[in-house]
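Hey, resending since the last one bounced:
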Amino acid sequence: MKYSLLIALSLALGATMAFADPQATHKDVIQKKNNVWNAQEGEKIEALKLKGDVTTGEDSYLICGTCHLSSGAGLPDGSYPQLAGQHASVIIKQISDIREGLRDNPAMYPFTLTLSDAQELADVSAYIQTLCIPPGNGMGSNDPAILRNGKKLYKKECTSCHGANGEGDKAKFYPVLAGQHYKYMLRQVTEIRHGKRRNANPDMVKILKKYSDSDLDAVVAYISTLTMPGTLCTE
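The structure tokens again:
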């Protein structure tokens, strides 16, 4: 087994005080980066060219499982997102963006540093993609009127990128949304609307800026009901 677990734990413990002020976190890196959706350069591109080894990636995932669970289910309260079944390309992009200061995630940042190189990033991403999606994700409102509004908004402006069943698009780095926790998604889309997710797709920012709080809640509540045929865990 690699030493990544010990490294990450020590970084995480040391980060308890360092991350008290998120704005101070790797500030020197963040200040050098402008808003970038998907620049075709850097570690991300290197990792995407590599074939990920699922067996090796399972070993690297051990540290991820301490928060996201061994199943990749995350937590229904939205504190940790579901990772299971996510496109490897999306995982590679998001981890690379955090490592390079393009996405601000102080809690995740020290753990991304445990990946030694682009190959290990490709490996762990390949493994995550193989995980079946656990049932029982955190849900939003079950009010029929809210869900009808959410479905209308989703069908109008979200399916072209994220698909009818929330399957996303690995080639375009659009994430799987099916099975994701309502509270996590609501937090993320709110941050995107307010310009706090600096690596967000600008087309998505334009769409979300038009949404009221109730519309945002409705579309996320509807998304939380989506499932992808053939991807759910059977046991």
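Residues 157 and 207 are 8 Å apart (CA to CA).

Sorry for the duplicate.
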